[in-house]
Structures are given as structure tokens and as C-alpha cells.
Design goal:
Layout: E1 2-8, H1 12-23, E2 28-31, H2 36-41, E3 47-48, H3 50-58, H4 63-68, E4 70-72, E5 74-79, E6 82-87, H5 88-91, E7 97-99, H6 102-115, E8 119-121, E9 125-130, E10 138-143, E11 146-157, E12 175-190, E13 200-204, E14 207-215, E15 218-225, H7 236-246, E16 260-274, E17 277-278, E18 281-283, E19 289-290, H8 298-319, H9 323-350, H10 358-373, H11 375-385
Parallel strand pairs: 1-2, 1-11, 2-8, 5-13, 11-18
Antiparallel strand pairs: 3-7, 4-7, 5-6, 9-10, 10-11, 12-15, 12-16, 13-14, 14-15, 16-19, 17-18
The structure holds arabino-flavin-adenine dinucleotide (FAS) and P-hydroxybenzoic acid.
Length: 391
């Protein structure tokens, strides 16, 4: 097989890149090692920045998002028995976030690619890349038991943190920046109406908790846990008891319980590789960077990377320009590092760190009290949360 851009990974990065390339008249083939059903049912991110919503709508795949997405004009911080609302309408007029599950975005993108005759090969095995430092790179894989390969002009590594693209770059060619946090998130999806119309990020003496949602009938909840947490040690009753305790608000409604549809543990790390390119292999999304989900940036960064990369490929195929391809990594990293800072700040402010001294805990509370009392601090949180303007 041959194509112009070979894409590894059918997550938000790979699918959105394939879609944007198609709109620019550029051919691509996506290879994915999971099944279509698996990637469409994999529960992950939930909050879309304004720029991500705009990109999906402007590129023609935002219809269901506009119909079913929940537009939120604020978010809440809960600590010390009080709740502070960050009012996007007042602080960042005209900008909001939309709650719409990542798996829904994936479904919409797969449907659009298939309708447009796009090629997505699911259930591939043993993916590898070769010739990434030449002008004739190739993706090799097994599909349906047959060894196959795709000759490409370029390869986009959109295969996430555990993919094969980043490791295919020669050791020493990448600078790695990483911080691993001493905790994780235990997340549940519950068939229960959210007790709040907006997200609640809570810091309790016993740890962090987050109330989010997927629809008026489905609540998404997280609580801070140990990084090596044994899910078996978390019965439904124990999960609900911990969530009620950490999200308690003397004046507000209790969290609604319901059947737990999904339970999982997400590790927490900050991770960036530079540059996001080696020869004709370009990295996008989680293949190049990971943020702790406290800032709700993961999927939004993936979309921002792909917007820049698709524009650079379009300039190459339209005018044989290579300057935007050469500039891709630096252009993407500007936004990535600002999102890393915000995600680190939100994580540090809202989680309990083992070994924190009494001073650390009091300083952390003062940080939250400062945000609650300062329009400037709330504006800073709001502009980062809804998404910084695109460069
Ligand atoms: P993805 O990981 O989504 O997609 C990569 C794709 O490549 C996958 O479909 C994978 O199967 C495929 N692949 C991997 N190796 C391959 C190979 N060798 N050959 C072929 N295909 C291969 N972000 C938030 O903002 N909020 C959250 O709550 C949140 N929760 C998360 C929970 C988990 C468990 C994880 C891992 C991430 C979470 N994230 C969250 C971040 C997440 O949303 C990512 O930012 C987003 O999925 C990034 O999209 P992609 O870059 O497309 O990577
Ligand atoms: C989610 O709804 O899954 C979600 C929302 C906000 C976050 C992280 C996850 O910061």
C-alpha cells in the first residue's frame, strides 16, 4: 500500500489528523491496534476547550457535539467546607468549555472518515516504522494474519504514551522532561444524575475528588488514590463513602449514587519530549506529551497539535513548503508547556502529597483562599481552563 501520510493510532490525534488532511485533499491511512468497538467505548477525557469545539464544528464533525454536548460557563473549587465558583462568563466573556466524552468525539471522527471513504485499519498487530530518516518512510504491521506495509511520504505517530512511534526515534535524539506524581485517580462512571450542573474540584484532608459528568443521567467521578492502588480493595460502597466525604458541602446536595458502569485507575504524570519530530516521523498528542488530567488538557492538546501539523502538511503538498513542517515542534511546544504549567499548578493545589509538612498544607490552603478571593487569580485559572487563545 502507499499513501501520503501514514498515521499510527485511531485516538483523537490520529483520527482528527486524518480528517483534517482529507479536507485539505491529502491522503492518509490510519493503522490502529485495537478494535473499532474498543476505541469507541474507551472512556477517557470529558472536557473540550473552546478551540477544540470550534475546530470540530468548523471541520464539519461537530453536529452531535453541538446537540448533545453540555456547555459549562463555570467550574467550582471546593475546600475547607466552602465552594468557590470560577465564572467564565464574567472572567473570560464569550468562552466556555463543553462536556462531551472523548469516546463520543472518536465515534464522530470514525463515522466521518468512513463516510468520506477514509482508510482505518483496526486490529493491526506488530506495528513498526522504518526509514524515518529517509524521504521514503514505511509502516509495517500484520493485519488479518498477513504481513503488510504502507509506503508513505510522512508518518504521524499518534499512538499515545505507550505506542511504538516515540521509541522508534534513536536514543539521544530526544530530550525527555518528566515528573511522576505520588498518586493516581480512581475514576468511576455511574448511572446517576450529576448532583451539580458544573464540575466540582475538591480538596479534602483525605485527598482530592472531582465530580464531572457525561450527560444529565451519567456522572463521572474521580478520587485521589495511591499510584499502585488495587481496584479490588475499592468496593462500590467504599468508593461512594469516600466520594461523599471528600465532596461534602454543608449547603449543597449530596453526590447521587447509582450503578457503577466503569471503574479504573489513571496514573498521573507530566511528560514532554522535544523535538516532536525526527526526520519524516512527526509525533502528536499523548505520543509526545502527557499532562495530569487535573487541568482537563490531554485531549485538547492533542487537537491543538494536530491543527498545527495538518496546516503544515497542507502547505507542503500545496506549495512544497517545508518551513511549517520544520516549525511544527516549536509551534506545538509553546502551547504544550503552558498547559503543562497549568496542569501541574492545578494538581499541586488540589492534591494531598504524602510527607507534606504542616507548613505545606497551610500554604496550599492559602493558595486556594487566594484564588477564592482574587479576581486576578480566578481570571488566570479561567483563561487557562477554557483554553488559551491559539497562537
Ligand atoms: P490515545 O492514547 O487516545 O490514542 C492512541 C491510539 O493509538 C490508541 O487508540 C491506541 O490503541 C493506538 N495505538 C497504540 N499503540 C499502537 C500501535 N503500536 N499500533 C497501532 N495503534 C496503536 N485527559 C483528560 O483531559 N481527562 C481525563 O480524564 C483523561 N483520562 C485519561 C485516562 C486514561 C486511562 C488515559 C490513558 C488518558 C486519559 N486522558 C485524559 C488523556 C487522554 O484523553 C489523552 O490526552 C488523549 O487520549 C490523547 O489522544 P491521542 O494522542 O490520540 O492518544
Ligand atoms: C472528565 O470528565 O473525565 C474530566 C473532567 C475534568 C478533568 C478531568 C477529567 O480535569
Amino acid at each position: 500500500m502507499r499513501t501520503q501520510v501514514g498515521i499510527i493510532g485511531a485516538g483523537p490525534s490520529g483520527l482528527l489528523l486524518s480528517h483534517l488532511l482529507h479536507l485539505a485533499g491529502i491522503e492518509s491511512i490510519v493503522v490502529e491496534d485495537r478494535s473499532r468497538r474498543y476505541v469507541e467505548e474507551r472512556i477517557r477525557a470529558g472536557v473540550l476547550e473552546q478551540q477544540c469545539v470550534d475546530l470540530l464544528v468548523e471541520s464539519g464533525v461537530g453536529g452531535r457535539l453541538l446537540r448533545e454536548g453540555l456547555v459549562h460557563h463555570g467550574v467550582n473549587l471546593r475546600f475547607g467546607g466552602r465552594t468557590c465558583r470560577i465564572d467564565f462568563a464574567r472572567l473570560t466573556p464569550g468562552r466556555a468549555v463543553t462536556v462531551y466524552g472523548q469516546h463520543e468525539v472518536v465515534k464522530d471522527l470514525i463515522a466521518a472518515r468512513i463516510e468520506a471513504g477514509g482508510e482505518i485499519l483496526f486490529d493491526v498487530e506488530d506495528t513498526s516504522v522504518e526509514g524515518i530518516a529517509t524521504d521514503a518512510p514505511r509502516i509495517r504491521f500484520r493485519h488479518g494474519g498477513q504481513a503488510q506495509s504502507i509506503a508513505c511520504d510522512f508518518i504521524a505517530g499518534c499512538d499515545g504514551f505507550h505506542g511504538i512511534s516515540r521509541p522508534a526515534i534513536p536514543h539521544g535524539a530526544l530530550k525527555v522532561y518528566e515528573r511522576v506524581y505520588p498518586f493516581a485517580w480512581l475514576g468511576i462512571l455511574a448511572e446517576a444524575p450529576p448532583c451539580s450542573d458544573e464540575l466540582i474540584y475538591a480538596l479534602h484532608d483525605d485527598g482530592f475528588a472531582l465530580l464531572s459528568m457525561r450527560s444529565p443521567r451519567i456522572t463521572r467521578l474521580y478520587l485521589q488514590c495511591r499510584p499502585d492502588e488495587d481496584l479490588e480493595a475499592w468496593s462500590d460502597d467504599r468508593v461512594w463513602a469516600e466520594l461523599h466525604k471528600r465532596l461534602e458541602d454543608r449547603d449543597g446536595p449530596r453526590v447521587n449514587e447509582g450503578p457503577i458502569l466503569q471503574k479504573g485507575v489513571t496514573p498521573m504524570r507530566s511528560f514532554v519530549v522535544e523535538p516532536m519530530r525526527h526526520g519524516r516521523l512527526y509525533l502528536a498528542g499523548d505520543a509526545a506529551h502527557i499532562v495530569p488530567p487535573t487541568g482537563a488538557k490531554g485531549m485538547n492538546l492533542a487537537a491543538a497539535d494536530v491543527r498545527v501539523l495538518a496546516h503544515a502538511f497542507a502547505a507542503y503538498y500545496r506549495e512544497r513548503r517545508t518551513d511549517l513542517l520544520d516549525a511544527y515542534s516549536a509551534a506545538a511546544l509553546g502551547r504544550i508547556w503552558k498547559a503543562q504549567r497549568f496542569s501541574w499548578w492545578m494538581t499541586s493545589m488540589l492534591h494531598r502529597f504524602d510527607g507534606d509538612s504542616a507548613f505545606d498544607r497551610r500554604r496550599q490552603l492559602a493558595e486556594l483562599e487566594y484564588v477564592a478571593g482574587s479576581v486576578a487569580a480566578q481570571t488566570s485559572l479561567a483563561e487557562n481552563y477554557v483554553g488559551l487563545p491559539l497562537d
